[in-house]
Amino acid sequence: MVNAYRPSTIDEALRIRNETKALPLAGGTDLMVRYKNWAGLPPKFSQPVMFVAHLHELKGIEVEGDELIIRSATTLTELLKDGRVPEVLKLAVKEMASPLVRNIATIGGNICNASPAGDTLPPLYALDAKVVLRSVEGERTVPIEDFITGPGQTVLKENEILCEIRIPMDEFDSIFYRKVGTRRANALSKVSFVGLKNLQGDRIDDIRIAFGAVAPTVVRSRDAEKMLKGIKIDEIEQIYPSIEAKYAELIRPIDDQRSTAEYRKIVSLRLLRFFLLGKAD
Amino acid sequence: MEISKAIRRVDNDEKVSGIAKFIADVKLEGMLYAKTLRSTRPRARIKSIKIPKLPNGYFIVDKNDVPANNRVKLIFTDQPFFAEDVVNYIGEPILLVVGPDKAKVLEILEQIEVEYEDLEPIFTIEDAESGTKPPIFGDDNLFADYEFTKGDPDAAFARAYRIIEGEYRTGIQEHIYLEPQGMLATYEDGTVTVYGSMQCPFYVKNALVYALGWPEDRVRVVQTTTGGGFGGKEDYPSLIAGHAAFAAIKTGRPVQLILDRTEDIEATTKRHPSIIRHRTALDASGRIIAMEIDIKLDGGAYATLSPVVLQRSMFVSTGPYHIPNVRVRGRAYATNNVPRTAFRGFGAPQSIFAVEMHMTNIAEALGENPIDFKMRYFLKKGDDTATGGSVHTDVKLDEMTRQVIEMSNFYEKFERFRKEKGDTVLRGIGFSAFLHGCGFTGKGEEVIKATAKLRRRDDGKVEILVSSVEIGQGAQTTLRKIVAFALGIPMEDVVYENPDTSRVPDSGPTVASRTVIIVGGLLEQAAKELKARWNESGEIEVIKTYRHPEYVRWDDEKFVGDAYPEYSWGVNVAEVEVDPVTFEVRVKKVWGVYDVGTPLDERVVRGQLEGGIVQAVGYATIEVMESKNGKLMQNTITDYIIPTSIDAPEIETRLVVSPYPYGPFGAKCLGELPMVGCAPAVAAAIQHALGLKVDEIPARPELLLKKWLEKSR
Ligand SMILES: Cc1cc2nc3c(=O)[nH]c(=O)nc-3n(C[C@H](O)[C@H](O)[C@H](O)COP(=O)(O)OP(=O)(O)OC[C@H]3O[C@@H](n4cnc5c(N)ncnc54)[C@H](O)[C@@H]3O)c2cc1C
Q: Complex ipTM, two decimals?
């Protein structure tokens, strides 16, 4: 048996976290599965647990300057209902879990869980999202790609809580999202792909590409994106082999119970080709 | 017919409201919990088991606690209740830890140390065939090895103008009944009573009597509300009923043993994976003159029902077609995998997949539309079956096929989809035709001699006394309906309790789509007799015992004659969309026309058809189960993927009725049929969409991509 805490303010939560190292539990849709026990017994937590989803300081979405702020305990359903949430993030959220799970699962939980198959992650990487972490000592802001360091690994300190996600309010004319799951609901990703593009005339002005579930963390290559920027649409084909080579190096999938490394790799590159050239073969 | 009109299901309210009590909901005074210590090795000798000092009130129950025979009695008695000196699969039970506090039970379980000496495991059919490893079962490592011949296939192959061959593979399928397996046993006054989730109360009882070595009247089995079975609760419950019973006898307390979902997936039985080879001889005009079929099933570590599963697989392996010369060989291999057993269709989905894909491929090789080609071979009344039996009643496959063509607009789509070359979607359409032999295979019904009883009680109600159980398929509703209609009394006046072996006769197990046609048939006869005697005073009891219709002939040595007294029939068309980038498959729509004889309740029938179709769609596309060194990789419901409601296709079904004169109100068999034949329609549709051979299911995207790349190379 472990202690469970239900703080009433974020400050109290930070204090408890600092003193007890209690594990934050938001929707619990990852944690309750991870620590599940023989039916009839409480879950197998090995450290104190602290409920955070009810804290009003962690709820809600607002705009500050040119940034969208999503507080960490915002549920996936709430994201879908908000007009300001970037379209590509919504496309990903729409295909996550099922309505039941989306009603309690939070965006903060998906980020902190840091699963290679976490579906909000590729859009957040592509959107240059940052996370705001707080502790009794203060606050720091970390780009999402620096926050997540490996499967289940983040730089979150034992006394910190993820409070908000900040996303620059960029617009894109071309938004492409694909989740290749094991089925169409309540399914984890084998591969996911985000492609965002802005054109100026027939030239690429901005391009963002991210792959999920095919490496220990989300794959995004600023190098490859730089190579594509300024290129005319009909010239992509010429440099495509070198672009593909860049990603092929970074995409290092595994064989597991959901798919094969071979499939994940080939399909990632087929999605890339489809996004850039409009055809997969 | 009036009886066909849908009524409100008898078990609706208690299940929808949550009032129904499943075995895990039952808590008795002083009850103990049991948890199973399982083998972590696929094949090993147990060298030693170190058990910690047990606190007061906690027990170990193992092979030494089985009073008479540590063997689950079924076809063979090869499977121990608890491992003795060797283990043969990961998940095999070794012992139980039993006690009042679950946390303590777990703690003890985790402290037990088993020392193994690994033996060379056999994992695949190929492995087993190579014969290089010591056999698991007998000398040849085969649970069964059969062959039968009709006509003169050798002569036909000798004069063949062309021979078309193919090899087809099907995967493991897991039942995923909603309610995991569970039992609760009590021991009072020298009698053991086992309550639980099951399809076959008398299988459980017979297994207990054998294991205990006790007289029958000291063993009682009671079925509790059962959340699905699909064959997974045919033989497996006997094993855990034994566990619970031995524990109750040893401790003198009620003992509950419920499997958690992951434990259930890892340790309970599965559908047999198969490798099936077809050779078909054609004459110069392109007519089929002979078929040779070789079926290999991976049976897992113990025989369970593998021999009979193999028989059904073989007996329907030429599909719903009239083939003059036939040779079928079948083998079921022992492997160090979790045992395989009954699963809706019982070997038929495997062989129907093979024959349907093979027939489609022959049509393609001849440049013909697969429907037109298949229709020419449809069995008709009077034709001989693969085993040289006879089709005794009208077959309406032609009419059913015409209807499904019209419903699905098959020909137009078949041509159009072939020409379309989408960048974002590839469409395909496929057809399958199939049959299901009603009731037990071969001599089964003759051996079991099902008995059903009807009792008009003093209170005027009529009670059904049979061992058939409600497992979600609607038996509570349909069997009552048969009796109510035959007697002309209201449904409310018919009583049908969950069977208790101390009260009901053995009307056989709830399997093989036999409940309505066999047990329902007996109840109809009994009701007719009761009606004739209705004016007698007091309690009246009518007992009926099953006999095949006069015309049924069967040679169980040579496998010649009527393997089944009657058949149900079906045709499916499936339409799919395949994503050309990722090779994900979406089954858009399935059309089906079925002949199950008279439908006894149209909604119950539709429920079975739609559920069977969805289960077959899963089997054909996404239900991947692989094992790595004997360990299942997909051992949770997160990873073992069955269709959700949005993966399910749109479904449109119709019924065509060719009544069976010996079935109740003309009913035939239903439950398994829709699962038996839909997968090849889906696979043929994928094949049509991609223009490549789909000779293996599940046709997961990984497989399709690989084939696509091979083709484009
Ligand atoms: C049936 C089912 C389907 C699913 N489908 C998908 C899917 O399609 N795609 C997908 O990506 N995921 C899926 N998931 C996983 C899960 O639902 C998501 O990852 C979800 O977003 C987790 O959020 P949560 O609030 O439930 O997290 P929790 O379980 O509460 O927490 C997850 C982790 O984050 C930490 N955490 C939570 N909040 C904070 C915080 N504010 N500060 C610091 N740490 C915090 C917790 O300590 C824990 O380590 C599924 C889960 C289930 C059960």
A: 0.96
